Input
Amino acid sequence: MVQPPAPEAELDLSFLEHLLASPDGEPILSCMQCGTCSGACPLGHAMEYPPRAMILQARVGDMSPVLSSPSVWMCVGCYTCTLRCPREIDLTDTLWPAVRDEALQKGMQPPAELQTAFQNLYMYGNVLGQSPRKRLKWADGLDVPVLDLTKNPQPVEIIWLVGCYPSYYPRNQVVSREFARILTKLEVSWGVLGVKEKSLGDCDRLFGEEGLFETLVESNNELFERHQFKELILLDPHSFRALQQFYPRYGVDIPAQHYVTYLAERIDQLRPLLQKPVNATVTYHDNCCVGRRCACFDAPRELLEAIPGISLVEMARNKDNALCCGGGGGGMWLDAHITEHGGHRLSDERIRQAAETGANVLAVSCPYELSRFEDSAKVVGVDDQLVVRDIIELLAESMGLSEKEKT
Ligand code: SF4
Ligand code: SF4
Output
């Protein structure tokens, strides 16, 4: 329930003033309380204070019930509310981080799992709490050379920022090895940053941990400045978006691409290498960062359609209307909190939508989604119909570079 306005004597407009002073904060005054944002939010039904209600409380100068509500930690950063708002108010990247920052300032604690992820990020430079010394473990025994630029600095065309999950998580390490083979086959000059690579931050900024984010921006920028390269390539769409959208606010403006656009630009070079048919009916899940946020819908489909044997079918909700998997914006560490407070795992709902298409492969292009959807397929009971594969795995299979063929 939205609280009635506090008596005038208790009004505290400091949060609203702080919000209005932030970049992109001013349009919040134009909110007409239409409720489109709350209705469009896939978790809005479970939020006591969805975006519309948060703005109302900020305007009436009474944020205390909002800050103590579980709603503060329920947004998964999917960007649907921002895209749908008729007043183009930046809810996802301005309102939510400000509310969370205020909650932290007032001593509220984020859910325990999320706190652990932040502590890991602070101590080890990755959310998984793994040793930085193991950053290159994914490449053990790999049959193509991996140039570690921190040991052997030299100019390269691209630096591949491998990312946390692709470096450490066994299921994602397979995809990393296959991507390394694809880059090598394309005769690209590429290198990695090995033990020096750190998370770029993203979920920490969305969760009001601006200080931690700033520290990461600073140390990553120092690292990038030590190397000569044309652009950064990333497997993780959240990190790509952080680089594209938030790093420039700190004066760090580096050319970067997510791998789907990078490979789609090389489609003419790739096509003759895609020799083996991958006989499958595939449906593609648009991740929120490359998809809804960056409106990149064609590149992943172009890659999939170039693979012989693949028949592409669409889910009813696709492209900018795709349902979020619930893993972004810190959502990977919020499942317990969200379900405890009346929400549900969006990946479970999404895998049902994928199964309804009749596809036998759900293709993804985000490291979080492999494990999320594989788990959801088991939970929902569609794992005998549907397998989850990164686009990289499907390309590698058609190129004869997949892990299966190499072992
Ligand atoms: S959609 Fe925009 S204008 Fe409508 S209530 Fe939400 S923030 Fe306000
Ligand atoms: S970004 Fe997504 S999850 Fe967060 S409030 Fe907006 S619609 Fe809901």
User: Anything to note?
Assistant: The radius of gyration is 22 Å. The chain has a mean pLDDT of 94. The first strand starts at residue 156 and ends at 161.
